[in-house]
Amino acid sequence: MDLKLTRSLPPAAPATARCSCCSTQPQTASIPITPSKDNAMSTTTTASYPVTGMTCAHCVGAVTKELTALPGVTSVNIELVSGGASTVTVTSDTPIGNDEVAAALDEAGDYRLATD
């Protein structure tokens, strides 16, 4: 007797439907990174940056990926504000400069540090 497992998936939303990641409600995402033993005694630095251009969970993922690739970054937390300035909080073992953050945002896509 062969046993075949299947899983039912909900029907796909029409292309015009807005998913929850594209809503105007603030959303957060956080990816902690476990520091190595070499960094266990380091002092951490936390800085928040206003970032424009993010509209959905894909944007959050792209920005998080690029920022976590920076040397010393231990966590990234993003409060998504679709259509506005999202708050990106970066925790690192050493201070991260605005130029480094701006370069990572540019590498991730069309995301920019907001200016007043």
From TrEMBL:
Organism in which the protein naturally occurs: Mycolicibacterium rhodesiae (strain NBB3)
Superkingdom of the organism of origin: Bacteria
Protein name (record): Copper chaperone
Domain HMA as annotated: residue spans: 45-113
UniProt xrefs under CDD domains: HMA
Gene Ontology molecular function, alphabetical: metal ion binding
Keyword annotations: Metal-binding
Keyword hit for Metal-binding: yes
InterPro entries reported for this sequence: Heavy-metal-associated_CS (IPR017969), HMA_dom (IPR006121), HMA_dom_sf (IPR036163)
Keyword Metal-binding annotated: yes
